[in-house]
Give the backbone structure.
Amino acid sequence: MHNRDRTPESRMNLNTKPADNPLYPVNLDIGGKRCLVVGGGSVAARKVKALLLCGGQVQIISPHALEMISRLAEEGRIEWLKRAYRAGDAKEAFLIFGATDDPKVQKQIAEDAARYHVLLN
């Protein structure tokens, strides 16, 4: 066996159905881009931290949020819209995170992401 036969690519089974394959990893340059997080709980807080570390312009939409999110908004590091998500809020975003446990809101976020060609996580 040659060294090239030991590469991850050589172990891939190209005869599998796409649904059987793992997800394709993607790295994004979000520096200066609007990243929208819908929700104000612990999942949203984790997303906010990661987005800020990568230079994203973070906007939160949630009627309520954890203290950490509130503090970041007070410091001007993020924008916090203290209200529920509305259809169309994703229009100007580059990336949107649905971090709410409300299925109706999650569905609206997904529909908006598709409509406005916004990346969705």
